[in-house]
Design a protein that fits this description.
alpha+beta, Endonuclease I-creI
């Protein structure tokens, strides 16, 4: 795929994000850090598919592609496309996914919560408690308890 000029359309990007994308929020309690609410949109693919991540970077006009080494057995070398710049999140990522929401319900819910947090993080006085409550609901968290909605145990044969 190297050297091939790919043209990604919005439906292809939505499929990638539904399968491999992530909207994340970190609340930084360190008073010495400037960014108290860290926002991140990311997508991870195997090293063979790195070119797709560079095309995503071109499509959005922002973000960076990083190597992600994983030393666990049965895990291959991966690369990650990330957008962490708050202005890029506000000006590029949120508008794209507002107009083209993820299709998978869990990813759509994560984006809607992420979008609310982005809005709160732009207010003059940031309500960190509200952000924490919304953050706990992301990634399959329960809307009521903030705890994972699905509990499972690995079956031992």
């Amino acid at each position: 795929m190297k050297g091939v000029n790919l043209v990604l359309d919005k439906n292809y990007i939505l499929g990638l994000v539904d399968g491999e994308g992530s909207f994340n929020v970190r609340v930084n309690p360190d008073k010495n850090r400037r960014a108290k609410v860290e926002l991140k949109f990311s997508l991870k693919l195997r090293h063979q598919d790195k070119e797709i991540l560079h095309e995503l970077q071109k499509f959005f006009g922002c973000g960076k592609v990083y190597i992600q080494r994983d030393k666990r057995e049965n895990h291959s070398l991966c690369y990650r496309f990330e957008v962490q710049n708050k202005k890029d999140i506000i000006d590029k990522i949120v508008p794209f996914f507002t107009e083209n929401p993820p299709l998978i319900p869990s990813r759509k819910t994560d984006f809607e919560l992420f979008k609310k947090i982005v809005g709160i993080s732009q207010e003059e006085t940031i309500n960190f408690e509200e952000i924490q409550i919304l953050k706990q609901q992301m990634h399959w968290g329960s809307l009521h308890t903030g705890k994972p909605s699905v509990q499972w145990k690995r079956q031992v044969a």
